[in-house]
Write a structure and sequence with these properties.
By secondary structure, the chain is an alpha+beta fold. 28% of the residues lie in helices and 25% in strands. One of its GO terms (molecular function) is thiamine-phosphate kinase activity.
């Protein structure tokens, strides 16, 4: 019989956490911009060769270690700016394992029904209205192989994923609860990772459930936040600007396309993620999406598929970290990178909110009603996703 034990973890600002035995709460042709744009026709699901490939955070494990100061540089460039490489880049971005993994999300709508995007499923967090207040709730499950290989890193990833999802909804994170199972030493390492990240992001771990067992370890975490004005994909409209807000300070890992900024930003990350709430409250953003396992363009398609909108991402103005090939940057999971849709008259205000903190922000496109998510430069453009014909998550029906 597995043993359930009470655990306690101190957190920043005097919070402590306590849990008990029960659960708490095809081909492509690149043409000049003036001509018909090309499409990349490979199915979204073609790279999902195993269950692990279709699992969120699958690419993290078992060889990725999230611990700070263990990252390196040294990847060869895939992308140079010519039309042939635009086509190759589009194929790469469409066939990322993280994109294929998102397709399995559609099973939720298969069971619960599609409903409307606001009521869910849809955005990164669910909106719960409580006496005039918008509470945002969400959750993340870590791949068991990742947890077993690097339990400390899995703890960090669980907090990072929840905080970024809350921020993308315009929420300030209030608390996180978790469920942990596994051998005692593994559970302890998970909790230490949770504690470290909770202190960095200044969000308390307020409870959870721990089961000591000799079986495979597991970790899930669930975030709670509050938003005065909610950022949602249903608020995106043609004519709005597409803004990328990101941290370019850091170094790409060599073994896995993760771009961490923990050392470079430190505790400033806590304020960084809360900047999206400030931008929302000023009316300087309508919708947002954190860039994660689907890469920048896959994440963008997920943001736009609710309204079946399109956009061309201008690679000539796209901010890219020094020394990082653009193909790697568009494919990676950054520690801090968000895509925001912004009213045209509010673009300057949106950019200033991030640049004032030493972050990078840049307008990289304008939303339209084509449903085509395109990448382009001075040489031409190529369609990566056609949202009038397909859905990355199968939630947009």
């Amino acid at each position: 019989m597995p043993l359930s034990r009470t655990w306690e973890t101190p957190c920043r600002r005097g919070f402590s956490t306590r849990g008990g035995n029960a659960r708490k709460s095809g081909t492509a042709e690149v043409r000049p911009r003036s001509e018909v744009r090309s499409r990349v026709g490979c199915p979204i699901t073609e790279t999902a060769s195993s269950l692990a490939d279709m699992t969120p955070f699958a690419a993290f494990g078992p060889n990725i270690n999230f611990r700070p100061n263990l990252h390196r540089n040294g990847r060869a460039a895939l992308f140079t700016r010519n039309t042939h490489d635009l086509e190759e880049l589009a194929r790469r971005l469409r066939s990322l394992p993280g994109v294929a993994a998102k397709n399995s999300i559609g099973v939720v709508a298969d069971v619960f029904g599609g409903g409307d995007w606001w009521a869910g499923p849809g955005d990164d967090g669910a909106v719960v209205h409580d006496r005039g207040r918008n509470l945002i709730v969400g959750g993340e499950a870590m791949l068991p192989a990742f947890v077993a290989k690097d339990p400390y890193g899995a703890g960090i990833a669980a907090v990072l994923a929840n905080v970024n999802d809350l921020a993308a909804m315009g929420a300030r994170p209030l608390a996180i609860v978790d469920t942990v199972t596994g051998p005692r030493d593994v559970a302890k390492a998970i909790l230490e990772g949770l504690k470290w990240a909770a202190e960095v992001y200044e969000v308390p771990i307020v409870g959870g459930h721990l089961t000591e067992t000799d079986g495979p370890p597991s970790l899930s975490a669930f975030g709670l936040g509050a938003a005065d004005l909610v950022l949602s994909a249903i608020h995106a409209e043609p004519g709005q600007a597409l803004v990328l807000a990101c941290c370019l300070d850091g170094r790409m890992r060599e073994d896995f396309l993760f771009f961490p900024s923990f050392e470079e930003r430190g505790e400033r990350l806590a304020g960084d993620v809360r900047t999206l709430a400030e931008v929302a409250e000023r009316g300087a953003a309508a919708a947002a999406k954190d860039v994660s396992m689907a890469g920048m363009i896959g994440s963008l398609a997920m943001l736009l598929e609710a309204r079946k909108l399109g956009v061309q991402v201008d690679l000539d103005v796209l901010p890219v970290p020094a020394g990082v090939p653009i193909g790697d940057w568009l494919s990676c999971f950054p520690c801090f990178a968000f895509l925001l849709t912004t009213p045209a008259e509010k673009v300057g205000e949106c950019l200033e909110a991030f640049t004032a903190r030493g972050l990078t922000a840049q307008r990289i496109g304008t939303l339209d009603d084509t449903g085509e998510v395109r990448i382009g430069d001075a040489s031409g453009s190529v369609v990566v996703f056609d949202l009038k014909r397909e859905s990355v998550t199968r939630l947009a029906r």
